[in-house]
Amino acid sequence: MAIPPIVALEIGTSKVVALVGEMREGGHVMITGMGRHPSTGIRKGEITDLENASVCVRTALAEAEETAQVSISQVHLAVSGGHIQSLVNRGTVPIQGKDGEITQEDIDQVMEVARAVNIPADRDILHTICQHFCIDDQEMVIQPDGMEGSKLSLDMLVMHGVRNRLRNAVRVVRNVPMEVQDTAFSGLCSALAVLTPEQKSGGVIVIDLGGGTTDYVAYAANVVAAAGVLGIGGDHVSNDIALAFNIPLAYAENLKRESGNAILDSTSTGQKISVPADVGFPGRSISLRALHTVISARVDEVLRTIKKRLANEDILHHVGAGVVLTGGGAHMKGIVSLTEKIFGLPCTIGRPRGVSGLVTATEAPEFATCIGMVQYGFKYSTNHRTSGIGALFKKLIGG
Amino acid sequence: MQERKVSIVGIGGGGCKVVDWIARRCSGGPAVVAISTDTEVLASSHATTKLQIGSVRTAGLGTGGDINLGRLAAEDDIEMIRSLFDAIDLVIFVVALGGGTGTGAAPVVMKAAREAGALTLCFAVLPFNFEGQQKKECAEQGVSALVDVSDALIVVPNERLFEFIGVSNVADSFEKADEVISDGISSIWKLVMLPGFISLDFAHLQAIVRNGGGVCTFGYGVGTGTGRVNAALKSLLEGSLLEKGEIINSARSLLVSIAGGVDLTLKDIDDIMKAISARKQKDAKLFMGTVVDNEVHDRIAITVIASERWSSETVAANVEVKADPVVEVGEKTRKSKSKARDFQTKLKLEPTGKGRFKDVEPTVLDGEDFDIPTFIRRGIAIER
Fold first, then answer.
1. Is the C or the N end of chain B the one with fewer CB within 10 Å?
2. Are residues B187 and B248 in the same domain?
3. Complex ipTM above 0.90?
4. How far apart, in whole angstroms, are the C-alpha atoms of residue B320 and residue B363?
């Protein structure tokens, strides 16, 4: 039986994107349909207006259906939001077998124990991701099956978010109406779309610079070592510009896109940009250098905040392959230089790998999240509907 | 004409060296003040007034390039600093940016001068490229901090003084650079205090600076012997200080000071002004004054302060009236202007400036509201 197409949906702060992916011969994924719509009713990655957001989603899905020539009945939903957090929990079990040999039973048991964390009552677990096993004193064990010892431990990265907010995203989709097959953290999706196996084993940080949030995922020695979200995004950059120069938001957004630069260099000295007059606004001339100063301050702050968080979890030493940037913010001039300067690591723009089809979708960093969602929909889904949040990623071991 | 009190103040090691030149060459001139944390710098200075700041904090040593330390040193002795500016009309500051005292203490000192009601001009010297990237960045930060507390900030990149320095050794290079800068500064204060046949009185200078001002560029040209006018013009208009004259093309207002000896003729002045006028924009403002020094022979120096802005306000219109009323108008507008600036600063910091995040739950990390623009929370001055 032919594998049904997978539809990935991302309800972002600046845009809603739906991608239809189909599996071709030889296990190759092709993007056959795309729908998108500018977002309204979403701020910092979270739903503030259900009706408006639903309209955007409906339009995007309709366009995706149209371009792919398929009928969509359910979607895989990528979620984000500043409320999403992660922690690492270590679970330990004594090894049952009489000769100390580790069986699948032991592994299942330790996973269950590692998953059992205390999180606040208003929160739900979004993902539980296995990191490394540990047998007695031996750390960094990848496959404990068949090995010998007296106790087995497992480090589990648990991602969780506020229940209501996670459910709100699902509600928007149900309101379309459309069924949600599964949900996943958008940062993880982006990472999976753009990273190579070499990067994952060498250690890499993926930073998704979105309109409402900045998601980050760090890999070290082939496992997801850390993941998180900052409720700060491209919207903050535009807002800073609007407030600094007293200009309408729409113009600030344009200035950011057309003349923005994340670093201050000599090319901006003495130059001016004029913002045209409009209703209720007399027009202004702005120093390019001042514009770049405002932008640079904000972007610098976001990157340094992420760096600080990763340093606190002792990740930075294990990241050799550098930093990969995705999301709309990756288009900003100078962002690669600034990132390299702050992290002291090589930096590249991440582009989706391993998919073909609609070129606009498959090559731009802002579609990495959706494409990642499609890829893993195929990798981990079964023919019948899986339910529950995070089902797709439960057994994810960094692959 | 009412006597105006002018002070020339050097802050930090580099600044003190420059004002030292002025003190040595212009005895009987304006009050020269040297401010530093380093007792050695002060000991060797010829300034009329020397002020050691941060004595407890730095134990009489330099700040070692620590901007924060420089700032704290100034804040420690803010009362002493304030007393320097009692009843002073014009303060010309000289700061070498990139170090600790210059970059850190200067904004504090200049703010005090402003608050005392003085017109503040600041010559900020930027380090040579060979002094390294860190100094450069530190200097750039310094410029941003100084723009807000000075009526005019005249930036002088040492790098552009190479054509005056020639092939000298390192010590001489710095000496020569200091000489050029001090000569330029002297041409400005002398305009007000030692007028030649075309004077530029204080009120005029005040108006020019207040309406122009902001970040200005320093131009300098010197010539000696026969053909000195052409030589001076050449070094001024083809030099890198004014980017081969480009700065004049794009300036909105220009202040020109022509300094020479008793042999300075009207024709010399005319030739010079014609050459500069030819390069400037049609509607850009051009102000000029001359300085005649009896001790000088066979030498002409042209100093240009070019500003990229000019906002016409009523202050300019009142300048031609006689002394007293001018003082009144000057003071009133000066006070209201500084009030306006203070008000502006206060507005910047109010938390109601959240724009699109007004009605959204704030992103608070470690007790800090990240919805408030970063440049505000980090106190970064923006060139408007």
1. N
2. no
3. no
4. 55
